[in-house]
Amino acid sequence: MALAHSYSSIKDYLGCQRRYHEVRILKKYKSQATEAILYGERVHKAFEHYIQNGIPLPENLRQYQRFVEPLSKVAGEIKCELKLGIRRDFSPCEFFAKDVWFRGVPDYLALNHDHGVARVGDYKTGKSSRFADTDQLELMAAMVMSNYPKIDKVKGLLIFVVANDIVKAEYNRAQLPEIFSKWAGHASMIEDAVELGVWNAKPSGLCNFCPLTKEACEHR
Fold it and tell me: Is 1 inside a domain boundary?
């Protein structure tokens, strides 16, 4: 079974193999669109419209102007919601290519080809940045450098607009072998689980928010 991995799918698997299998492989359940999720989608779309088309933020999102305005002024080629893909040999490919292995969609990407530097950002609407996970930036930076050979450095940003915080991380091309080895290892765990057919549940406080029913998991 050919799988296309991503930061979110890897994190889902590490969080609970059973949920990953039921939701992502069997597709028996879907996560509910909570008000928090819908709010995040509105923020993402408003930021995209502002950066790409100069459309002012809606009145109820104007408090985030200080985050989005600097992003629109970064020198270079700016892209929002760009779909990126890489193959097993870490070469670039189309997002929906038959041999795509990892996929990623950065909320914000600025490519300065003249200086070989890119900025990649992801917007967060959670109320706290305490548990910020820069692994997302690490994988995205590697995918950007794979897709753009002239980019040798990526400056990453997790932009917590509600929590009023920005978490930064920086990566360079010399780190690519280590980064790809790490994520290839994660992918191999999932692919091994597919071969073995073993999907163990991992009970935690998040079980209360899991879409699975009691029929699918004894911890619900």
Answer: no
- Per-residue tokens: 98: 């038959």
Q: Is residue 215 part of a domain?
A: no
Walk along the chain (220 residues) in steps of 10 and give the mean pLDDT of each run: 90 96 93 88 98 97 97 96 97 97 98 98 96 97 98 98 98 98 97 95 90 89
**Tally of domains in the chain:** 1
Q: What is the distance, to the nearest Å, from the Cα of residue 207 to the centroid of all Cα atoms in its chain?
A: 22
CB 92 within 8 A of CB 147: yes
Q: What is the pLDDT of residues 164-209, one digit of tens each?
A: 999 999 999 999 999 999 999 999 999 999 999 999 999 998 898 8
Residue-by-residue DSSP string for 156-191: EEEEETTTTEEEEEEEEGGGHHHHHHHHHHHHHHHH
Strands 117-124, 153-160: pairing kind = parallel
Tell me whether residue 63 is in a domain.
yes
Residue 181 lies in a domain: yes
Question: In Å, how far from its chain's centre is CA 63?
Answer: 24
Contact 127, 91 (CB under 8 A): no
